[in-house]
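User: Batch of two.

Assistant: Item 1 of 2:
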Amino acid sequence: MNTSPATDGPRGRRARRILGLLGGALACAAAAVALSGCDNQRIDRLEEGVATEADVRREFGEPERVWPEAGGARTFEYNRQPAGARNYMVTLGADGTMTALRQVLTPQNFAAIVPGMPAAEVRRRLGKPMRIAPFPLKQETVWDWRYLETPTTAMVFSVTFGPDERVLRTGSAPDPEQSRG
């Protein structure tokens, strides 16, 4: 068997692990870029007031969740977490025609998440988070969403809930998984 110090032993294993991690990070980044590009093409093919539920499902597939709205309308949630930086809400009127398509992970929507708001309302406004982290000793749970701050800064928006499942505080920070280098 042919062995060398560069590939065997602790250094060799560490080098292989680092290369594997880099490859995984590159694959995730490529998938996020591909998702973003595919979403833009899908969005371009849908026109508010014209596109139907069948058109939306053809372009985006099955929604993560369907939210009932007043008057028989429905909102389809299309989640791009954890690798993506967008969550879409597509609203269909009672007649099945698309009335709105919006990307909900925005500073304006984050500003509307205020202390005292119930977790169910946060979930409804922002879609499924990329991560939910309980902190039992503090009696808190943190939900995180990955998003892009214009134009390409990878960020994470976090909402901290108390034991009553109501917002205690919110905040944004650079995405640590994108800023490693």
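Item 2 of 2:
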Amino acid sequence: MDSGRRQFLGRWGAVVTGVAAPFALPGQAFPQSHTHPDLEAGATTTAPDPQSGSGTRTGSGHERFMWLAIAQARRNPKWPFGAVIVGTRGGEVLGSGVNTGADSPLLHGEVVAMNDYVRRQGNQGWADTTLYTTGEPCSMCMSALAWANVRRVVWASSIDEIRSTDIIQIDLTAREVAAAARSFYTPQLLLGGVLAEHTNHLFREAQRLRERFPDASAV
């Protein structure tokens, strides 16, 4: 990572703070493809349809870490955006977080997880990590991931699905943001839809909760 990006993330990490509960686990293809490297072994295998619940060990690996992101999301039932950052080779969880946008508009789940990563690991080693998040990263979060050079990003619910639950979203997909950053950012994996049937239900439940108990909280 060049010095400019390090300074950018260093300043951001110093200003934006978030608290996340740590987890521990024992331990090239791109946009639309369902073929991708295994998280632990680095071998290329075929992932299952995320809606089917069956398939190879690779799909099970992605689902295993997405469940941890979902566990984070449940800590904020009205805004269930949870994320974990995982060591791509070892499978250890290096950072985690949930949306705390009521405290700051910057504190989306991915940002809180990135701040937790910096607190625990320092501003280094991003290229060797995979981020899992319950919702497709917005343009702010995907830009931060590009600046950090997080090369593997896996999400569950799409921006369109999230928007359908009355959560405002900037109309740019994660892949579009990544493509706009191609002069300096080359992701290895951008994969959506993992456990989406579960997170879609979570976002719909959150919508009902916000309607029943409205407040001033924002994403």
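Helices lie at 3-15, 57-73, 109-121, 139-148, 159-163, 174-180, 196-212.
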